[in-house]
Amino acid sequence: MDTLPVETLQHIFEIACADGGHTGCALSRTCKAFRAAARPLRFRMLSLTANSRRLQSFVALYERECDPARGDKPRVRHLYIAFPRLEGLRGGRKTFTAAPPTNPRSDSDAEEYPDMVQRLFRLVAPDLVTLTIQCGFVTPGGASCLPMLSRPFPQLRSLTLLGVHNPRALLASPIHSDGRSRGAAAHAEPSIENLALFPALTHLRLGPGCTGRNSADVDFWATHAPRATHLYAAHADTHVTALVRAAGMRLADPDPAGAPVRPARVVSSTSGAPRALPSVRQMCLQPNAVQCAAWCGGCPSYATHRAVLHLEDLVAKCREADGGVDVCLLDPPDNASYCPRAKGVHREWLESIQDGSIEHLRHSLAGQ
């Protein structure tokens, strides 16, 4: 290994480090030569469980590595961050004092936890290409009310949310795009709530656990992901109205009193208004009907059944209208529980990044 050029070692390390950070950490402890060769790739792909101690240690380490005196900044391109469930929430977003996920060492840890999360995202936001935020391990909603995003992500192409009930609660208002407080920046820039948070995003995935009424807030995503072309929605049966709007359709008015009860039909919009998500070209929708089956003698509830009929009608209407939106309806998952589905998303994330690293290496070698 001592005779290999640094460039060859880095090609090898690029594939080896595509495991969420474990190999990069091991290489940095092997010897000084390996540490220097692996440094540009060590943080390229990270899978981070954000308990208090681990988050604090990582933020301190990464801030040291980003010191200009150490050379070029090691950039984080792919991040999967999982927040355990946060207990003891008190007050509003401005007075957040949640206890950290696992046995905080002191009361100051609880107060510093939100600041550490925001510091991490401020460090990685300029360079991220893919981002997955998982809120909760066994059940959804772990940090779904923790304000963490305080600046735009200019290079982000793919965003996946798990267990996030309301994406607006993730915005670190009143922080502005450069991280300054409202008082320091009020004269210079608008609040991040009015900026495109993900201006280059193309793939948006609202994964398992995004069951809140505002998870599929199309007005929010139209503002913050104006170039999104692909939308996947788990629990699509809970977001029918929003998804119908995203496709440029609407639900027909309810039948008059006394008429036979039946689900409202999906019809084309007659107002001439643009689609709520005009950039979206493909929508993959997956109902979670299996979750209701045990409650109704093995059959989905009427509300879920009605929602699935709406989704089927939406697919048919989009095909007839040929309005530039391809909508497909996926079968419900075999296991609708949050925990195994979240593990499946993490496994798919690892595989996709590893496949991308191998393909990138193949192109690099072909050009030499």
Q: What does this 3D model show about the protein?
A:
The two termini are 21 Å apart. The chain has 11 helices and 10 strands. The protein has helices at 6-16, 22-28, 32-42, 52-65, 107-124, 182-185, 218-224, 240-246, 290-293, 302-321, 338-366; strands spanning 45-49, 78-83, 130-135, 158-162, 203-206, 230-234, 249-251, 266-268, 282-286, 326-329.
Overall 3D shape: elongated
DSSP strand tally: 10
Average pLDDT score? 75
Order of helices and strands: HHHEHEHEEHEHEHEEEHHEH
Q: Helix share of residues?
A: 25-40%
Number of helices: 11
Strand content: 5-15%
Largest sheet descriptor: 8 strands, parallel
Strand order of the largest sheet: 1-2-3-4-5-6-9-10
Low-confidence stretches are: 88-108, 175-188, 291-298, 360-365
Class derived from helix and strand content: alpha/beta
Span from first to last CA? 21 Å
Radius of gyration: 23 Å
As an assembly, this protein is single chain
Helix and strand topology:
Elements lengths: L5 H11 L5 H7 L3 H11 L2 E5 L2 H14 L12 E6 L23 H18 L5 E6 L22 E5 L19 H4 L17 E4 L11 H7 L5 E5 L5 H7 L2 E3 L14 E3 L13 E5 L3 H4 L8 H20 L4 E4 L8 H29 L2
Parallel strand pairs: 1-2, 2-3, 3-4, 4-5, 5-6, 6-9, 9-10
Antiparallel strand pairs: 7-8
Helix pairs in contact: 1-3, 2-3, 4-5
